[in-house]
Amino acid sequence: MISIPSIKSVLTKSPSADYYEGTIVQSSGSWRVRISTSTGFYKIEWWDGTTSTAANETFVLKTIAAPYNNSTPKPLKVYSIDNTTDQRKIGYITQIWHERSSSGSPRLSNINTANFRNCPRLQRFYMFNDGGITMIPPSSLDFSGLKELTDLRINATSTGIYMGSNGGNNSTLTSVDVTGCSSLQYCYITNSYALTSVTGLNSAANSLVTLVLHLNISLSSLRIQNCSFNNPITYTYSGYNYLSSGGVYFGNCNFDAAALDQIYTDLAAGNGIIIVQNNPGTPTDNPSIATAKGYTVLGT
């Protein structure tokens, strides 16, 4: 559902607060991104002197000319513009969307680093993977302090597609920090085989509606202190339970019974769905801790 080929990208704010700078390192193909800004239009200045201009919600595709060099950083600048004059206009970035899709030959997508501290008005960050392509995200993603971030999605959307290459053997994403993301409602982090830490999930820091941490096989502990989930929507596919909204989905992680019980204990009262299937602790956990608070627990 989304696309970018081999890439190492870092987005940072330039000295003049109305645009952002970055570098990418890419070994083949093309680089694809979608940006939204407060002015409704954005421009990218590429390393080769060319530019791309687009309206919000419009993808920009940049082809990397051969021979590809995977070690030389290629700079770019992204900023909001006035559509009538095509000139830079004071504004801010609200959405960054990376993706790789099934179009073209499958290639490795590598985003080396990403710095969101300099995108203080960022509302949505999407990194999707689909269609037989492997994406390698950074080793860590730090969204802490982004008070307007509402939607965070780092997911693979097809069976057998991973956030990390070769079925996760080269997975790089180990930690995600959402501390202080007080508007965060939707958090999806899936198929990240090396992920061991997701921090900052609590009612004082977030406004979570849906939390999906699926197929993160190294994730063995999590705190979601005083979070409440309500009005669930679920569906079943190939005999497995899945969550659309109104709960938490921890299927195929590495939680033992003590870790699951800690999650149940951390929850505030609610009527949402908790899905924990295919965790090592499900034979001996105590889901009654959560059901006593009004939740339905599936997969244990």
Describe this structure in words.
This protein has helices spanning 165-168, 257-266, 288-291; strands at residues 10-13, 19-24, 30-37, 41-45, 51-55, 59-63, 74-82, 87-88, 93-100, 109-110, 124-129, 135-136, 140-142, 151-156, 175-177, 186-189, 197-199, 210-212, 233-237, 240-245, 247-249, 273-275, 296-298. With 300 residues, the chain is mainly beta. The strands form five sheets. Strands 6-3-9-11-14-16-18-21-22-23 form a ten-stranded mixed beta sheet, with no helix packed on it. The chain starts with 9 loop residues before the first strand and ends with a strand. Mean pLDDT is 77; it is low at 1-17, 101-109 and 157-170.
Order of strands across the main sheet: 6-3-9-11-14-16-18-21-22-23
Strand content: 25-35%
Number of strands: 23
Q: Uncertain runs with pLDDT below 50, 5 residues or more?
A: 1-17, 101-109, 157-170
Bulk shape? elongated
Number of helices: 3
Mind describing the biggest β-sheet?
A: 10 strands, mixed
Characteristic terms for this protein:
300 residues, mainly beta, ten-stranded mixed beta sheet, six-stranded antiparallel beta sheet, disordered N terminus
Question: In short, what is this structure?
Answer:
This protein is mainly beta and 300 residues long. The chain is built from three helices and 23 strands.
